[in-house]
Design brief:
Elements lengths: L27 E9 L1 H5 L2 H14 L3 H5 L2 E7 L15 E7 L2 H13 L1 E2 L2 E2 L4 E8 L8
Antiparallel strand pairs: 1-3, 1-6, 2-3, 4-5
């Protein structure tokens, strides 16, 4: 009777997918999480329309402006009503981003975009989660 060689111990973390992730030197896989604040819902119809009109151009052409590759988006506005102070967020943008400075610059859109007599940050929150491509769940 022979005994088989023991199986090798699994690595503590799977290797990063080719070309991506904080430890590989590739782009940062980033999930931008965007929530609507209570100030948006407290505003009158005209101001809400002004805010809604300011959002698309603020986040337009992320690739051209920041070198970001948008991989996908999700808007939960049909099934979520009211302010989103934290998870679950109202909308998400999944992207590959060149570096942390660029992640901060995209988040800065909310800080810098003028709306009425204020800035977009009064009506939206943004938070970025940075990781690496998942090693399973591929197409």
């Amino acid at each position: 009777m022979t005994t088989a060689d023991p199986a090798p111990a699994p690595a503590p973390f799977p290797p990063a997918a080719p070309g991506g992730g904080p430890t590989s030197g590739g782009p940062l896989r980033t999930l931008f999480c965007i929530g609507v604040t209570q100030d948006f819902f407290a505003a009158d119809d005209a101001l809400r329309a002004t805010v809604a009109a300011a959002i698309p151009p603020a986040f337009d052409r992320l690739g051209e402006r920041f070198g970001v590759t948008v991989l996908g988006t999700l808007d939960d506005d049909q099934l979520m009503v009211g302010a989103a102070p934290a998870w679950p967020w109202t909308s998400y943008v999944l992207a590959d981003v060149p570096d942390l400075d660029t992640v901060a610059a995209v988040c800065g859109i909310v800080r810098d975009t003028p709306v009425g007599d204020g800035r977009l940050w009064r009506y939206l929150r943004i938070e970025a989660r940075v990781g690496r491509p998942l090693f399973f769940g591929t197409a």
